[in-house]
Amino acid sequence: MSILVNKDTKVIVQGFTGKEGTFHAEQCLAYGTKIVGGVTPNKGGQEHLGKPVFNTVKEAVATTGATVSMIFVPPAFVADAVMEAADANIELAVIITEGAPVRDMQAAKAYAVKHGMKTIGPNCPGIITAEECKIGIMPGMIFKKGSVGLISKSGTLTYEGANQVCNEGYGISTAVGIGGDPIIGLSYKQLLPMFEADPETEAIVMIGEIGGDLEIQAAAFIKENIKKPVVAFIAGQTAPAGKRMGHAGAIVSGGAGTAKEKMEALEAAGVKVVVSPAEIGKAVAEVLGKK
Amino acid sequence: MNIHEYQAKQIFAQYDVPTPRGIIANTPDEAVANAKELGGDIWVVKAQIHAGGRGLGGGVKLAKTLDEVRALASEILGMTLVTHQTGPEGKLVQKVYIEEGADIKDELYLGVVLDRAKEMPVIMASTEGGMAIEDVAHDTPEKIIKVAVDPAIGFQGFHGRELVFGLGITDKNEQKKLIDFASKLYKLYMEKDAEMIEINPLIKTGSGDFLALDGKMGFDDSALGRHPDIEAMRDISEEDADEREASQYGLSYIALDGEIGCMVNGAGLAMGTMDTINYMGGTPANFLDVGGSANAETVAKGFEIILKNPKVKAIFVNIFGGIVRCDRIANGILEATKITDVNVPVIVRLDGTNAPEAAEILKNANIANIIVGTDLGDGAAKAVAAAKGA
Questions:
Q1: Which of B232, B247, B238, B257 is nearest to B288 (CA)?
Q2: Mean of the pLDDT values across residues B48-70?
Q3: Rounded-to-integer distance, Cα B47 and Cα B45, Å
Q4: Does the annotation count B189 as an active-site position?
Q5: ipTM entry
Q6: Is a pLDDT exceeding 90 seen at residue B152?
Q7: Which top CATH class is A138-289?
Q8: Is B279 one of the catalytic residues?
């Protein structure tokens, strides 16, 4: 078991034949992901990486039965691509592209929600179910199969966290990079219950950062609904207010969205909060050891 | 990207959002000429910098004669204005906006921002105009009216009614004018991909008109590509020179107060590295994300920018290679030590893709001030120790 994706998940790639799409699709195929084709307008009928290329997502879905799309199109076309996927009854769109305008993502997400399509990202490393299915740009080799679920706004902190968990002798069930933009798809609140319900997952690591209030919402949700142990780290305790820290959404504005308030809310919800990401692995060992 | 008040008012004018009349000036002579052109017998001389609190800092003053306009413009142009938003170093005033005086009967607040929880724009209004909205939100949150507008339906009559009744406006003519004002502001927010609009204060005049007395706007950087008119309003003198230089190399850099320079890949890990240094008793000198396409040149540039800061006593390079290959970073570090005089200890932690090759490269180079950190905690501890010993 795992959440959202596994070895049988059929995946298409939007922006399949572009430089990024090609490079990462190749890596995903090498990892074992069941990529069944891709979409690039006006290249339909061709073959790429040994898989068929289609002009539209609808054609790709009709022919291959894909349920997930990995999106690599340039930022200005992301909203269009997401809405096309929703319109073609894709179940989950994983949006890797960085730099999509907020207004576009607002419209695209609203449309996706209306059509019952889940989204991950944008501006994220994607999702990986260890040793089964990698849909994204993360280095696959650090994700050993195991019982820890991971949710993170940051790409490299996902790798850092997963690596520590594996070095402690545990492994990862599924890791989801949700992205650090102001408007994102699936977040802690939607992913936590999936991990709670997944029999393979025994503990959850959640990595957040300054800006917005998703971590606060997560804390309230954990308090009421999550029985499995949760370890959390919030990046940006030392970030100055009013400065955008790399991610479009990572900003403390008007005194709101600080690391401190998020850490306090999570602690109050019974989460084991670490002050440094260097402590994530040890904290996981501690919560799992207690069981 | 942020713009100046006078630029915000130019955009307001395109959308018929009413403002007092004004003209921008670069010199005291221009200021006087502008005042003459505007006419009347009272003018406001307003410093143009990208920060709020200009009035309290002495950057907004009233003139009753043309001589006063000249004297105030001379005083304000070239001054370093310090406000609660500029930091103690303040900002140099290079332009003043000369505006006609307004008959202020009442001061309101009106703004549009993205509500991240609702995932739609929210119009915020308050009767407490002229005050810092953060303080109003903190002390008297009930005095802020929030109306979220779903872009799928746009600004409707009911949104407007919620605003005016919330503000306690009973005069039907005034209601109509303010609803019209808010509707235009929402349209502007959407069409220009604004990130934030703030009018504080929005004034009601003696004759019952509403005017934007101030105007603050920020835009979504990711959408600037489709707004060349907005991009043209960029004032690079308002931006930090080092941050700007870094961004030209694909580096995201923010200066801080501490002693340990940081070079990290990924924004989250970069913040996490700062937090770890802090946790171990050190102080980070900067945030620096080298991004996903780091190479020898960008790494060398990163060192150069970090070392411009004389307070830096050690540098911690913390890379978890995913797409970024560690061997490339290692070569970048060696390259950097050739191009730039790296005269402080450099603690290097490279993990992930091609980490063993990278370790080999650094070992063979045998450079005295390079110290290898085995993991994040170890690297941070060594960086803190090195900064203290230096």
A1: B247
A2: 92
A3: 7
A4: no
A5: 0.92
A6: yes
A7: alpha beta
A8: no
